[in-house]
Amino acid sequence: MSIVGAMSFVSSRAQVEPFRVMQILGRALARDDAILLCVGQPASPAPAPVITGAHTYLDTHTLGYTATLGIPELREAIADWHSRTYNVRTEAKNVVVTTGSSGGFVALFLAALEHGDSIAMTRPGYPAYRNALKALGANVVDVVCGADTRFQPTVDKLEKLNPTPRAVIVTSPDNPTGTIIDPEELARIAKWCEENECLLISDEIYHGITYGRQCVTAHQFSPNAAVVGSLSKYFSMTGWRLGWLIVPDHLVEPLENLEANLALCPPAISQYAALHAFGQDARAELEGHVAKYAAARDVLLRELPSLGLGRFAPPDGGFYLWVDVSHLTENSELWCQHILDTTGVALAPGTDFDPVDGKKFVRISFCVEPEQVSEAVRRLKKVMVDTTT
Ligand SMILES: Cc1ncc(COP(=O)(O)O)c(C=O)c1O
């Protein structure tokens, strides 16, 4: 029998950054008293009708593979929800159900873009776009966005890019900043994309979680945009791993062929159960969660300035605050570790979201009970006088 020596099979495409939020989470979970303001995961379970539905389907269905693009009833339900919410005409044939929006992004990148294409995303921005795109061989182009544009891209910024990107990702409400793009600017970007043969990818996974501002879908401005949605956030179903793409006709078959080979189908039990996520009962429960996020947000908006953490753009939606801590530390990773060690409050260092300036920022998630946020503030107050690292 031959002895095979230790060989290394790590590809260069696997050399992506770790998700540091998960490292902080790991350390936090090792404590009994941790308050998790580091992850973007609703503390609530799926709506009751979804859970009841899941039990029923478990008892009555074989739950084998489903159609690759998703079960027709769910594609229909998503199209209907999208049409009603935004007063647009979205058809089930353009809906592709995916394994979380994360699975949808990878499939979409593969279906629409060539190796080496330039893709524009905001910095700060959601790190998995950057890392997944890099692994797929794309050229990620940063659109640096600050408080002046409320961390959202503008046509002016896109015009300055050279070469013109093949795709632009707009995230609204945004992660990590919680800002919502102005409808007029999204309309301008959609038009610019049409004129420049650039695919507009609109990440709308935080839609439904807003605080007094409305979200618009990119489909209101362009039938050619790719819209990305998810059951993870508003619908409080992170671990059920369901998301969707709404794409123009020409992308449906390529996505079907790719997904058939990459994933076969999205999780069956989640799809059947998710049929119950769009009804009135679920809606009432989900609006209750949004009310709690709003209360938690109010606590932070009121209290953070008194902790010396007053430099942020008030979030219009989602459940994050992007806070400038550059006056307290030169390294938000060390600072977050220090805060976790001394208070049990887990915050996310900004380095995941901004590889250049992220050490100056932290992201605070507030998708927990408002009381937990109050308790976090109480603990932070105790140590904030003495935390400069
Ligand atoms: C902006 C954004 N897009 C996409 C995702 C992926 O979410 P999921 O795969 O659970 O739909 C996340 C997760 O936090 C996110 O913040």
From TrEMBL:
SUPFAM superfamilies to which the protein is assigned, alphabetical: PLP-dependent transferases
GO terms for MF: transaminase activity
UniProt KW keywords: Aminotransferase, Pyridoxal phosphate, Transferase
CDD domains for the chain: AAT_like
Residue ranges occupied by any Aminotransferase class I/classII large domain in the UniProt entry: 33-380
Superkingdom in the source lineage: Bacteria
Cofactor(s), by name: pyridoxal 5'-phosphate
Principal EC category: transferase
UniProt-listed Enzyme Commission number(s): 2.6.1.-
Residues that span the membrane, as ranges: none
Similarity-based family: Belongs to the class-I pyridoxal-phosphate-dependent aminotransferase family.
Name used for this protein in its record: Aminotransferase
Organism listed in the record: Corynebacterium felinum
